[in-house]
Amino acid sequence: MTFIDILGFRDIVAKSSAAEISAMLTLLRKTTEISEVPQARSEVDYYAFSDSIVRVRRISNSVVETIGVEANDIGLAQLDLAHRGVLIRGGLTVGQVYSDGRSIFGPAMIRAYDLESKDAISPRVLIDPQVVQSAGISKLIASKKIAGLIGNMLSEPLSDGVVIDYLSVALDELDEDADVLEMLKRHKEVIEAGLIATSGVERVRAKYEWLFRYHNRFVMKTFSLLDARSLLVEKGLTRDERDKLLEAKFSWSKEVNSGSHDFDDDQSDYEDNGDRDDDSHPQMLDFLYATSTPHRFFSCSDLRLIYGPPNELTEEYLTSSL
Fold this sequence. Notes:
two-stranded antiparallel sheet; 11 strands; disordered C terminus; globular
């Protein structure tokens, strides 16, 4: 089950119509049925009260497959809401819960609430670490056998758990290259606007700081062309954040040549000559590079990107591994 909190709901209620709020809540209600056999009752029970949403999905076939489908549903809603400037935070767990469509209670409900309210902190949906361990999800992530989840491969401060990777979920769903570009461009614009609007409000800005790191990490891990920098969040950053981003770009330009895009490698050979402006490093911004592995190309009027095929969660793998 998943417990979700809509952040800043008080302001949303004050500024939005009932129809707009209802549309937001409906996004979190959408579900994908796992069973191919028609069921008398939906596989997911849905509860909404004030700024909280609770989703209860009955386990079908396997725990990992059920989590993957739930992550996909929530990830798509999370991106759609983010594009509307609405952020959510949540916790997803597996356990016992009583749910009849009207009433809900049980250990899993309490656990999911604790994950959301105490552990998630940032605008993300955190998977219960106990479930990650017992279901072997970390190994599946490392071996690229399950889509829609990210784990400890991210650098600080994103390395404290497995969360729904909603940008990867969306990348899997989008068929047109132009849609991928538009999705990332819109996501970038929302984050930059949030960083600017919350400057000086540390508690609120921290949410957008997490998003900016998540977004830029995703772009740098997904695309093999350095000129994808046009998709990076760069506005509204502090001086320290700008310096770190410039160093990350420089590190990225070097690691492209080895086929690896990892922020965590040592950057001690980076030399600061006093001029930290991007234009002072044309060699790390204006070239095209493809790795030796097969990639799919797409282009637009001013951008040419190369990225690898998205990971896929296959039923055959799950059947043979769990």
